[in-house]
Amino acid sequence: MEENKIEDHVKNHGTKVKFMVSYGGKIQQKLQNHQLSYVGGDTKILSVDYSIKFLDIFQLKYQLPGEDLDALVTLINDEDVENMMFEYYRAQLNSTKPMKLRLFLFPYNRCEASNNG
């Protein structure tokens, strides 16, 4: 019965599900009412196909210092993060200014991201 309702909803409203994705902030307790609240950071809307699998949601990539955007490196596991940090510190040693490593969050092909607001 419930499965029929879901199928009807998909037929009438399409196969996309919108998620509000927040990052870069913190979850903190409000002093007034002690409820938890997300503070700071950015929020984006991510529209995905309802049949998406867990690992299909997004890709995280970074730009190597001094490289163009066509040479982004994909982060898949802890070893990739260690390599990214190594590249950061290696570039920092050769720079007189503080380094900023640029990270990119990409939706996979079945996702579309948009700004919230």
Automatic annotation (TrEMBL):
Residue ranges of domain PB1 in the record: 31-106
Parts of the chain that traverse the membrane: none
Record-linked InterPro entries? Gynoecium_Dev_Regulator, PB1_dom
List, alphabetically, the CDD domains matched. Answer: PB1_UP2 (cd06410)
Query: Cross-referenced PANTHER family, in alphabetical order?
Result: OS05G0427100 PROTEIN-RELATED, PB1 DOMAIN-CONTAINING PROTEIN
Q: What is this protein called?
A: PB1 domain-containing protein
Q: Which organism is it from?
A: Daucus carota subsp. sativus
Q: What is the lineage of its organism?
A: Eukaryota, Viridiplantae, Streptophyta, Embryophyta, Tracheophyta
